[in-house]
Amino acid sequence: MPAVSKGDGMRGLAVFISDIRNCKSKEAEIKRINKELANIRSKFKGDKALDGYSKKKYVCKLLFIFLLGHDIDFGHMEAVNLLSSNKYTEKQIGYLFISVLVNSNSELIRLINNAIKNDLASRNPTFMCLALHCIANVGSREMGEAFAADIPRILVAGDSMDSVKQSAALCLLRLYKASPDLVPMGEWTARVVHLLNDQHMGVVTAAVSLITCLCKKNPDDFKTCISLAVSRLSRIVSSASTDLQDYTYYFVPAPWLSVKLLRLLQCYPPPEDAAVKGRLVECLETVLNKAQEPPKSKKVQHSNAKNAILFETISLIIHYDSEPNLLVRACNQLGQFLQHRETNLRYLALESMCTLASSEFSHEAVKTHIDTVINALKTERDVSVRQRAADLLYAMCDRSNAKQIVSEMLRYLETADYAIREEIVLKVAILAEKYAVDYSWYVDTILNLIRIAGDYVSEEVWYRVLQIVTNRDDVQGYAAKTVFEALQAPACHENMVKVGGYILGEFGNLIAGDPRSSPPVQFSLLHSKFHLCSVATRALLLSTYIKFINLFPETKATIQGVLRAGSQLRNADVELQQRAVEYLTLSSVASTDVLVRARPSTPVTEPSDLGVLLGSLGSRHVDAEVAMSGVDLMATGFSTGQGRGLTSPQGGSSKFPVSLGSSPPSPFHLALFPASSSGLEDIGPPIPEADELLNKFVCKNNGVLFENQLLQIGVKSEFRQNLGRMYLFYGNKTSVQFQNFTPSVVHPAVSGFLDHWRAQLAVQTKRLAAQVDGGAQVQQVLNIECLGDFLTPPLLSVRFRYGGVPQSLTLKLPVTINKFFQPTEMAAQDFFQRWKQLSLPQQEAQKIFKANHPMDAEVTKAKLLGFGSALLDNVDPNPENFVGAGIIQTKALQVGCLLRLEPNAQAQMYRLTLRTSKEPVSRHLCELLALQF
């Protein structure tokens, strides 16, 4: 900062700084600062004709004091006065003080804006740059509103100096990030894009940063930048370092600009123009060729710059996923880094190869490095590199190498860091199930998982093995034998006891013929673990014992003795006590036939797909939830399904089903989207959860509509009369870019309903960019108009490609007829008069239903208000009842609606009566509202 140096002549400032540095204690420093503040305050108040030099000196002292951590509450006006000086050093100090100390909401902002406006109009490049830097540093909305229209004009003006253009581009980028709506590009778009052809490399570098940010929101407007970016990149890559001497960094020409251009190209699909695409491929090949050349310098800066370009080039090749030759070459180049002495390079190589493994063109090339990756998993000293090696093994796994990779990951699990064990467990479980040809190998693998890392084996994992064993007759006997042997280990994890209790209770009869695993031996083995387990596991074992009575009658007396023991019948835990009492009574009074009926054979059902485990693994791969702009997100997670169970002390259900023959509940169901490649008319049915997801939004407008391990869809909507606006937020939860991302609103696939639907509801959407970057979020705006009384919501179809695999999803858009409710206040007399008028049978819909949630009056009021109805007080003679009224606003007509909700707390029932002038509407609204209770 030359303005505060001794060479600038501010001797008083230099002396003050020296005094502060020479202070022996904090108290001495504070005393010296207070003395100086008092002196400065007196100078500002007493000497009205203070010259510019003195103002500059005292403002510098205030700035220095502030940087030491002390509050400054005066001197701001003097700093603003410095802005009008014609001396650079004085103006510089004024802008510096304002950038650091002036709050964006300060009353001085208008005075500052006037000074900035004068400097921008002065055409003095030095003053213009100072003003632009100040705008960027403060970045307030008020400054954005004042100068957002002027800065693009300065940026593209033909007479602007290069330094001014560079500052204007970066200033505009800062304002756009802070307030995108304030930057009106329009006519400036094409001229900003052509800055990529500027002769000054600094201007080009700043322009690339600006265009990269702008094109993410409006890709079509900036599509012309592709050819210009390729042309500029080609000139940099093919030139000798001497051609760009001022921008050559350790023999690497313009490395920062090259990286920015490569990132800009990743915002778009491969160029459509064959000549542009050919030139780009040549550039990429040149970068890969240069990577093979001997380094021109041994200094680390040279290799860092060279490798930065190389890795960004590989990212672009992976992004395009269309050039098999380049993908294989990129894989081979990364393979050379797997054994590099630099830890960072090994980490980046493993991370990039994970993405390459998902491409059909490079998957086989990645597999050739399996031995190197396994060695890295064993020998790497850095835990983050070992984790990336595990990720790569998971990504390169297929049916040909599954057993080898699973075996190595199990071996690594024994010594793995505690922070990543749960993730390794999930990956092993997924691979074992996905590529299992022999299901006995799958059972062995999961039991090994429990043995090695039992504390990190979640319910999702051991639920899955129970589902698969239950549904495959060929593996049930082997599973029973294997788990019986595993339970004989002196140290047996509780998860193993859970699995053993379930499998032996269901299939223990398949190994009962061997004297070494006879029924008494099985029971004795299980019961030896009973007192070492938690309450939940003991409850599971009690259920297994009652199954044993049915399977092995010879064990009845022994088991009844256990159930009759005081430690069970008088157990402090209500769950265990209740099970012991019920099971003892059942075994005592029920005949064998009754027990057989009470314990039906295990149903053979299709096990749920791998989405159960993929969902858990996917959530661990996301560093943070995608932020949904303006949407009040709830902690959604994945709901855990509960089987039928005994009531727990907390009033919930036990996680293990009491039904003696039922299979364990699936923790949750989550499937990857079924792929679809046909047109909009052939989108397939909505996902099974579509109705449930829709019902969550009947009484609310904001939240998460859908979420899985790949994608999160958030909704924010508002409705007024017959018009509505909905914002859909699509968040990419992965680190891989979505390709061909196409969300669209289509008609419901109901026969004979298309024309009616189009006549009753109009939805206008705006197309989005075809790519969604990893970890990014895009917003789509829907304008909705209710033309008539529609009963079926529109469908939202989302299609994209993830890792080269097409994905498709169909949901019901949360637009229901009640969204166009207009609450209406009515007196009691008017209500009953209108109620009697709507007395025809076809005008009334009534539903009596059981409450699914606790009957709370305040919650009920909130749901009725969220439904859109006004609540009318003192209308119904019974104060416990709820009465509401509203008008459905459509463009064609208005439909009045009256409702009455009668809760019966004793019976936990509701009676809902709803009357409108249109019979289908009454029935539809009644069904929608009843689902909320």
Brief overview, please?
With 933 residues, this protein is an alpha+beta fold.
Query: What best-fitting shape do the alpha-carbon axes yield?
Result: globular
Portion in strands? 5-15%
* CATH superfamily heading of the domain at 374-598: Leucine-rich Repeat Variant
Mind describing the biggest β-sheet? 6 strands, antiparallel
CATH class of the domain at 374-598: Mainly Alpha
How many separate helices? 39
Helix content: 40-55%
InterPro entries: Adaptor_Complx_Large_Subunit, AP2_complex_asu, ARM-like, ARM-type_fold, Clathrin/coatomer_adapt-like_N, Clathrin_a-adaptin_app_sub_C, Clathrin_a/b/g-adaptin_app_Ig, Clathrin_app_Ig-like_sf
Domain Clathrin adaptor alpha/beta/gamma-adaptin appendage Ig-like subdomain: 695-814
Protein name: AP-2 complex subunit alpha
GO biological process, one term: negative regulation of hyaluronan biosynthetic process
Description:
By secondary structure, the protein is an alpha+beta fold. Among the domains are: 374-598, Leucine-rich Repeat Variant (Alpha Horseshoe); 689-749 and 758-815, Immunoglobulin-like; 818-931, TATA-Binding Protein (2-Layer Sandwich). 51% of the residues lie in helices and 12% in strands. The protein contains 39 helices and 16 strands. The strands form 4 sheets. Strands 11, 12, 13, 14, 15 and 16 form a 6-stranded antiparallel beta sheet that branches. The chain has a 5-stranded antiparallel beta sheet with strand order 3-4-5-8-7. Strands 6-9-10 form a 3-stranded antiparallel beta sheet. Strand 15 and strand 16 (909-916) form a beta hairpin. Pfam families: Adaptin_N, Alpha_adaptin_C, Alpha_adaptinC2. Its main location: membrane. Adaptor protein complex 2 (AP-2) is a heterotetramer composed of two large adaptins (alpha-type subunit AP2A1 or AP2A2 and beta-type subunit AP2B1), a medium adaptin (mu-type subunit AP2M1) and a small adaptin (sigma-type subunit AP2S1). It is a peripheral membrane protein.
